[in-house]
């Protein structure tokens, strides 16, 4: 059995993992489609693609959908505006136990980095709405790292900024297949799927999850149970 160091950094997704989505992404995407001029008969297909690519950078999703940088940027701006309006209207709530889980991890000496496919302005609006601006050690969007999920950039940026010595000491947690692929491509010791968001156990496992838990509230216990070998249940 390969020895892995104990977890010293938890990289944790936001929407669907620590923040209840409650259909907000799809609502904002619908407004983005209107801005991009998506025809009624193409709406369902576009929305299905948004669901399938949950966790990825939204500008990347819109580029793939529309093939035009101008249209993608227009759609992305409309998406960010719509999501901000939904947050401002009080449609933003934490996953039960998420705040306590993050605090528990930090009290145990595990650094925590939030990651998201949203732009920084949306990310920060969510954190401010929840009173979470100081909850984690770091919060990253794709623009802060280079590329969004499923690329490993945000995980590796967190490793560098927080001074983690070994990427195998990282636990990446999220609700999408993109989160799991990101974890595996970064070389993280733990790729932890949660069942509070977009994708089910089968999709998370197929994408490379080493563990699947009901909720992020269970993450501190999982990390504690892995001791000095986070890969022991791979």
Question: How would you sum up this structure in a few lines?
Answer:
The protein has 234 residues and is an alpha/beta fold. It contains eleven helices and eight strands.
End-to-end Cα distance, whole Å, is: 11 Å
CATH fold name of the largest domain, please? Rossmann fold
Q: Radius of gyration over alpha carbons?
A: 17 Å
Let me know the number of strands: 8
DSSP helical segment count? 11
Category by helix and strand content? alpha/beta
CATH architecture of the largest domain: 3-Layer(aba) Sandwich
What's the CATH H-level homologous superfamily of the largest domain? HAD superfamily/HAD-like
| Range of strand content | 5-15%
| Domains, number | 2
CATH level 1 name of the largest domain: Alpha Beta
Helix content: 40-55%
Largest sheet properties: 6 strands, parallel
Apparent shape:
globular
Widest β-sheet, arrangement of strands: 5-4-1-6-7-8
Q: How would you describe the overall organization of this protein?
A:
- This protein has 234 residues and is an alpha/beta fold.
- Helices cover 48% and strands 13% of the residues.
- A 6-stranded parallel sheet has the order 5-4-1-6-7-8.
- Helix 1 runs antiparallel to helix 4 and helix 4 runs parallel beside helix 6.
- The longest helix has 20 residues.
- The radius of gyration is 17 Å and the shape is globular.
- The C terminus is likely disordered.
